Amino acid sequence: MGLRRLVRRLVRTLRRHILVDIAMIAAAVWFTSGVLFSLVEGVSIFDGLYWALVTMTTVGYGDIVPHTVYGKLIAILTILSGIAVYTATVSVAAGSLVEAAEKRRQGYIRYRGARHVVVVGWTPASEAAIRELRSRGYTGDIVLVTERPATVMREAELEGVVLVRGDPSRRETLLRANVPRANMVIVSTNDDAKTVLVVLAVRGLNEHARIVAEALHPENVELMHKAGADIVVPTRDLGGRMLATSLIEPGAAMFVENISRAEMRPIELHEIPAAPFAGKRYIEVLLELRKKGLTPVAVRRRGMLISNPDDNMVIEPDDILVVVVPSGQQPTNMVAAEARGEGEAASAAGR
Length: 351
Hints:
Blueprint: H1 2-16, H2 18-41, H3 45-56, H4 69-106, E1 117-120, H5 124-135, E2 142-146, H6 149-155, E3 161-165, H7 171-176, E4 184-187, H8 192-205, E5 210-215, H9 221-227, E6 231-234, H10 235-248, H11 250-260, E7 267-273, H12 282-290, E8 295-301, E9 304-307, E10 320-326, H13 331-350
Parallel strand pairs: 1-2, 1-4, 2-3, 4-5, 5-6
Antiparallel strand pairs: 7-10, 8-9, 8-10
Helix pairs in contact: 2-3, 2-4, 10-11
């Protein structure tokens, strides 16, 4: 039953497409001309159809030509019909390509990919988030949901970003962005009430995606968590506290500034898996990583962040270490290589 419905829907779609009409006209001209060539020139149906195809495509004859007056008249009509059909096909195909490109540029599309990042809303925060994702090496698709795609195209040149136009609080818009199959979602709408609605809608469509939301007012942070956001960043409150900290404790503010610069930052924050250090005390891991130029500052365990851990805290296999690294280094690769080296050495000792 499902297959039959799919076939009927495909047939209805094809009937509505002008290229199908042109193809049917081309087939009718080809078949009619082939039969007439066969009758008038006294050749087989196959030769007649071959003759008609060569004539329609204006390739020219190298082996057979019409000899009778009627045959030549049919050839003339076939050539004219073939040119008309060819011109119409090229025009419609080119128009369809241009229309599809314009729809994509304006965001009137349905994204078909999966395991992508969806950014909901066009704000200074979401623009910075997109640029940060690219600068950190994320090469997957980023789908930007916005009601103002023209503004995006005017204000920024974002390569590799797919635009989906529509109200992000509507389920239909989120479905066109394929939110159910997204890995991560960033929500920044410049309106906390709308952000809460979007987070609710996103969580309803995708139970497993990591949702990060921007809160303009700190009193809405808890509400966004209850709506389904995994992480909420109170940007304005955070910015205000940084301004005050810059006056009283400039060193702390300078540290945050260094890790938040868009370009040419001297240090970065990264996460690395703690599995290679499982069973060791935090102080041992700290000293070991310091030799590699990495400084652990926190541990993420079962969704909770442990800042400035106790020296004697034992590292678990599923822990994640938050480390400060010099800009440009890839700490994950360094730790993985070190772990492989230790594993090979232990295996050789066992042999």
